[in-house]
Amino acid sequence: MKKTIALLLAVVMALGLIACGKSEPAKTEEPAAAAEPAAEPAAEPAAEPEAPAEVSGTLTIYSPHDSDPLNDGVAAFEAAYPNVHVEVIADGTSNLVNKINAEKANPIADVLWGGGADTLAAYKDVFQPYKPSSIDLIDPSLYDAEYYWIGESPLPMVFIANTNAIPEDKIPQTWADLAEFDTDTYGKIAIADPVASGSAFTQLCTILFLFGDEADDYAAGWEMVAKILPKLEVKNSSSLAHKDVFGGENAVGITLEKAAIKYTDDFMKVVYPADGTSAVPDGVAIVKDCPNKELAELFVEFVLGYDCQVRQNAEWGRRPIRSDVEPKGLCPLSDIKLMNYNFDYAANNAAAIKEQWQDLLVG
Questions:
Q1: What is the pTM of this model?
Q2: CATH superfamily of 54-155+280-330
Q3: pLDDT tens digits for range 156-206
Q4: What are phi and psi of 98, to 5 degrees?
Q5: Where are the domains positioned within the chain?
Q6: Where are the alpha helices (DSSP H) in the chain?
Q7: Which residues in the chain belong to E strands, given as ranges?
Q8: Pairwise CA distance, residues 255 & 345, whole Å
Q9: pLDDT tens, 232-252?
Q10: What's the confidence (pLDDT) of residue 116?
Q11: Kind of pairing, strands 57-63 and 84-90?
C-alpha cells in the first residue's frame, strides 16, 4: 500500500492534481467552430481516499452532531492526516445551513457533516456535488441523485413503548394502528412538534408519503394525519418523545431509532412500523466554492469509509450507511420495511406542510 501511495504521489507531483475519469485521446488542431453552451458540471468522480502524509491545511467543518461522535470523528480524521488541522463550528442544522447561506459570497465552511438530508435537500444551491468512491455501497434512496449530499447514517423512525404502562400485545405495530390507539386506557402517544423539531417533521412527512400521493399533494396522507392527530400529545422538545415514555408519562412515543436504542431496560420496547417507515439519513455535503475543496473531499471519503463507519457504530450506536458494514446492536437496514421518502417535496414544501399541520392542530 505504501508503494502504491508513493507512486500516486509521484504522479500527482509531476502532473498536478487531476480528476479521476476516462481520458480522451489527443486531438489534432481543427478550425475553430462556434462554441456550444457549456454543460452544467457533473459531480466529480472520487479519488482514492488515501492521501500522502504531506497533505496539510485547515479544514472547517460545520456540524450539528452530538459532541461525542463529532469529537471522536474529528480526532480520528486528524490522526489519519496529522498535518491537517480541523476547526469545528457546532450548532443546530437550521442555524448552520442558514449560516452557510449567509456566507455564500465568501464561504467559511468547507463541509457540513450531519443534519437531516431533507434539510440539506432544501439548501442544495449552497453545496457542490461530489460522488464518493463508496457510492455503490450506499442505497440510492439515501443520497442525492446529483450527489449534492450523501447520507452518512440512516435514521429510521420507530415507535418506543413502556411495557410497565401498556401490555406488549397492545403496542401499535403500524402507522395505521396509531389511528385506532386506545387513549382512554393508555393515554396519548408522545410526539415532538413538527414545526420545531426536524425529526418530528420527518415523521409527519413519513405518514404523508406512506399513505398519500404527490399528484394531489398527499391528500390521503393528510387524511391519515387527521385521524392520528387526536391520539397524539405534542411535546415541545424532540427528546421528550422518548424520555417521557421511559418515565411512564406516556406509554408510547414516536422517535428516532438512535434515541430509542439507548434504553436497554427490558420494559422498553422498540417497534419498526410494519407498514413501512422512513430512514432519512444524516448527510454530509461539501460547501459550494469552499476554501479547501480537496480537504473537504478527503473528509467525505473518510466519514463514508469503512473504518469510520465501523467506529461510529461501535462507539456511538450510529447506524452505518454502507452495505458492507454490519450494524452492531442494530438489525440490518434490509430487515426494515422502508418507504419511498420524497426528499424534494419535503424540502420544497416545508413551510406549507408545517402550516397545514398547525391548522389541523388548532382545529
A1: 0.74
A2: Periplasmic binding protein-like II (3.40.190.10)
A3: 999 999 999 999 999 999 999 999 999 999 999 999 999 888 889 999 999
A4: -65, -35
A5: 54-155+280-330, 157-278+340-362
A6: 2-15, 67-80, 93-102, 117-122, 175-178, 183-186, 198-211, 219-228, 240-246, 257-260, 293-303, 306-316, 343-348, 350-362
A7: 44-45, 57-63, 84-90, 111-116, 127-128, 130-131, 150-153, 157-162, 189-192, 232-235, 252-256, 268-271, 282-287
A8: 22
A9: 999 988 889 999 999 999 999
A10: 87
A11: parallel
CA 148 to CA 278: how far, in whole Å?
20
Tell me whether domains 54-155+280-330 and 157-278+340-362 share a fold: yes
Minimal CA–CA distance to 191: which of 361, 351, 363?
361
Per-residue pLDDT reduced to its tens digit, 343-353: 989 989 999 99
Tell me the range of 8-12, 16-20, 168-172 where mean pLDDT is highest.
Answer: 168-172
Nearest to 149 by CA among 124, 170, 166: 124
Residue range 51-104, pLDDT digits in tens = 456 789 999 999 999 899 999 999 999 999 999 999 999 998 888 999 999 999
Query: For residue 273, which of 182, 111, 157, 362 has the smallest C-alpha distance?
Result: 157
Q: Do 239 and 259 contact (CB within 8 A), yes or no?
A: yes
pLDDT tens digits, one per residue of 129-158: 999 999 999 999 899 999 999 999 999 999
CA pair distance 203, 215, nearest whole angstrom: 20
Which DSSP symbol is given to 113? E
Distance, CA of 302 to CA of 296 (rounded, Å): 10
Pairing of strands 111-116, 57-63: parallel
Cell of 246: 421511559
Is residue 194 within 8 A of residue 116, CB to CB? The reply is no
CA gap 55, 83 in Å, rounded:
6
Type of residue found at 137: L
199, three cell numbers: 425529526
Its CATH architecture, for the domain 157-278+340-362, is 3-Layer(aba) Sandwich (3.40)
SS3 of residue 112 by DSSP: strand
Backbone φ/ψ region at 161: left (φ over 0), alpha (ψ -120 to 50), beta:
beta
pLDDT band for position 224 (cuts 50, 70, 90): very high
Report the sign of the C-alpha dihedral through residues 44, 48, 50, 51, in that order: negative
